[in-house]
Specification:
heterodimer, A: 321 residues, mainly alpha, MetI-like fold, two-stranded antiparallel ribbon, two-stranded antiparallel sheet, 4 strands, 4% strand, B: 277 residues, alpha/beta, Rossmann fold, 6-stranded mixed β-sheet, 4-stranded antiparallel β-sheet, 10 strands, 41% helix, binds adenosine-5'-triphosphate, binds magnesium ion
Chain lengths: 321, 277
């Protein structure tokens, strides 16, 4: 009797309106951002694809930047990001290792942790101004004074732009390093120490090999962040227009990037085309084309990161059933 | 670095001396604690413990949960050093050498005093790399020599026949009992004199446990073993001496036979017969 009653109440069709409404709302809020991204992508793809050609990718801008290509921008973005990661990676990994493996839980360390987390929330334009004040005016000018190089380091250039970007992405690398290290079981560290390994040997041989997937993912995510940033490089090294590549021949023979030169960059180029060109409407195809290249570059980075993560997880699984 | 080597060689030299002593006196004391007390912050975990472990014997540490067995064990290879707020007083002597003396390097000490943990903890590396880990730390690179050490260690740990065809496979694919024997092999590869075991069978089934116990019996010929266990039968089966701890105090220590047949302390008797703990 009882069960029959329960069964009846189960099959009874009673619509709970507030429940349905709330479910619908949350679904709506999930779909809206997704659709927005899709729409933006479609817009960029449709408008940008016609602008893409071999010339566009391989030539420099000409005719007051109304025609030609964006090769110097690609070149500049790629190399400034490369220099950025070379600077940020050792520092970020080092800081992450210190915070997890050595620092413990003292009050100073807690302040450092909070600072790192807050750093991630600082607007990027602030980093740009910091770059001017610290790297160019303080560090650069000081080097010039000491080395008597006139005005060589104390002005905007690729090196300082990369350094500013490095500070910007530092929290990403530190936090992802911390997470990756924390994921390594304490028992593995104990086993290593008990076998007569020093702390550093333990980190090197047991902890880092397990953490490298997470650290690499963080590195690539920070590269993809660095690729897209405009504000930090605005005053620290990005050029409106540069007729030559920021390259030099080392000892007159070995071609290399010249970090003491200014550079053109994709993100800044879009900004310039949209706000400061002679005719912003006529350059619209260039803007869309540049945006498409920039987005493609960012996506490439993110997919590489995902690929790495999958690769390392597989490798980890192979050794940890 | 030179200081470390000096400290290590001191231990080795001492061990040479004791080898000769052993010939004359087969039950010479290898490990001795003198008024050993340990505080975690203000919490007293070990209270003036005096214990002697004879060479090439098995000492079992028993007692109810939280009585300080693990704490005592981990002072012997200084694995407690890193715990913040810990205070260790008294002496721990190995071959008569105070291991807490300023010139003793804890890293080198741990090559003489190996440890096997409660939960088997192989590295997510191949079986070979797990066993070769310690020797490689000591700078051994020669593949041939490493292979020899790996084979000898795995054989001693009664695991060689089960894994010899898959040395390059992950250690994580082994069963729990095999993993624990691998951890023992990994410990043996460093060639320690003393092996500390903290409830090495508590995560294993009865068959795997029996294998480890058999192994302990074999290892006793070459090593001095100190084992923490909650299993009274196990203590009775594998150990020569037994120490009973209660609330940080060493209540009674004697030959296992005597502890189990005729304990002189009432608390010991109550614990062994299962009336508390
Ligand atoms: N890292 C630590 N920090 C603070 N107190 C600790 C720490 N480790 C152990 N203690 C305390 O020291 C006392 C002894 O602990 P210990 O781990 O040595 O006991 P045990 O005999 O091994 O117990 P069990 O049988 O449960 O493993 C306990 O009161 C415990 O709470
Ligand atoms: Mg314990």
């Amino acid at each position: 009797m009882n069960t029959v009653l329960q069964f009846n109440s189960m099959t009874e069709k009673k619509i709970n309106w507030s429940e349905t409404l709330l479910t619908g709302l949350t679904l709506f809020f999930t779909v809206v951002p997704f659709l927005t991204v899709i729409l933006i992508l479609i817009q960029v793809l449709v408008q940008g694809l016609p602008a893409i050609s071999w010339t566009f990718l391989s030539a420099a801008p000409r005719d007051g930047m109304m025609h030609g290509g964006i090769f110097p921008c690609i070149f500049g973005t790629v190399f400034v990001t490369l220099i950025m990661i070379v600077m940020a990676l050792p520092m970020g990994i080092g800081a992450g290792i210190y915070l997890v493996e050595y620092a413990g839980q003292g009050p100073i360390v807690r302040v450092i942790r909070a600072a790192v987390n807050n750093l991630a929330g600082v607007p990027s334009i602030v980093f740009g101004l910091f770059g001017v004040g610290f790297f160019i005016l303080f560090v650069g000018r000081s080097i010039d004074t000491v080395l008597k190089t006139g005005l060589l380091f104390g002005q905007p250039c690729m090196l300082w732009a990369a350094a500013t970007l490095a500070v910007l992405v530092l929290p990403i690398i530190i936090v992802s390093t911390e997470e990756a290290l924390n994921a390594v079981p304490q028992s593995h560290r104990q086993a290593s120490l008990a076998l007569g390994a020093t702390k550093w040997e333990t980190i090197l041989n047991v902890v880092l090999p397990q953490a490298r997937g997470g650290i690499l993912t963080g590195a690539i995510l920070s590269i993809s962040r660095g690729v897209g940033e405009t504000a930090p490089i605005l005053f620290t090294g990005a050029a409106y227009f540069l007729p030559h590549l920021p390259a030099a021949d080392l000892f007159g023979v070995i071609p290399m990037v010249n970090p003491a030169s200014q550079f053109m960059s994709l993100s800044y180029h879009i900004f310039v085309m949209a706000t400061q060109s002679i005719d912003p409407v006529k350059t619209l195809p260039i803007q869309y084309g540049t945006t498409l290249v920039l987005i493609a570059l960012t996506f490439l980075m993110n997919f590489t990161a995902i690929g790495f993560r999958i690769h390392f997880r597989r490798q980890q699984e192979k050794f940890s059933h | 670095m030179r200081e470390q080597t000096a400290a290590l060689s001191e231990v080795k030299i001492q061990s040479k001396i004791s080898e000769q002593e052993t010939l004359l006196n087969p039950t010479s004391v290898l490990v001795e604690t003198k008024d050993l007390s340990v505080h975690y912050g203000t919490n007293l975990a070990l209270d003036q413990v005096n214990i002697q472990v004879r060479e090439k014997t098995v000492m079992a540490l028993i007692g109810p949960s939280g009585c300080g067995k693990s704490t005592c064990l981990r002072t012997l290879n200084r694995m407690n050093d890193m715990i913040p707020g810990i205070k260790i007083s008294g002496r721990v002597e190995i071959h008569g050498l105070d291991i807490y003396a300023p010139n003793v390097n804890a890293v080198n000490l741990r090559r003489v005093v190996g440890m096997v943990f409660q939960k088997q903890n192989p590295f997510p590396k191949s079986i070979f790399d797990n066993v070769a880990y310690g020797p490689r730390l000591n700078g051994l690179k020669n593949r041939q020599q490493l292979a020899e050490i790996v084979e000898v260690s795995l054989t001693r740990a009664a695991l060689w026949d089960e894994v010899k065809d898959r040395l390059d496979k992950s250690a994580m694919a082994l069963s729990g009992g095999q993993q624990q024997r691998l951890c023992i092999a990994r410990c043996l590869a460093v060639n320690p004199e003393i092996i500390l075991m903290d409830e090495p069978c508590s995560a294993l089934d009865p068959i795997a446990t029996a294998k480890i116990e058999e192994l302990i019996y074999q290892l006793k010929k070459d090593f001095t073993i100190i084992i923490v266990t909650h299993n009274m039968q196990q203590a009775a089966r594998v150990s020569d001496d037994t120490a009973f701890f209660y609330m940080g105090k060493l209540i009674e220590v004697d030959e296992t036979r005597k502890i189990f047949m005729s304990p002189s302390n009432k608390q010991t008797e109550e614990y062994i017969t299962g009336r508390f703990g």
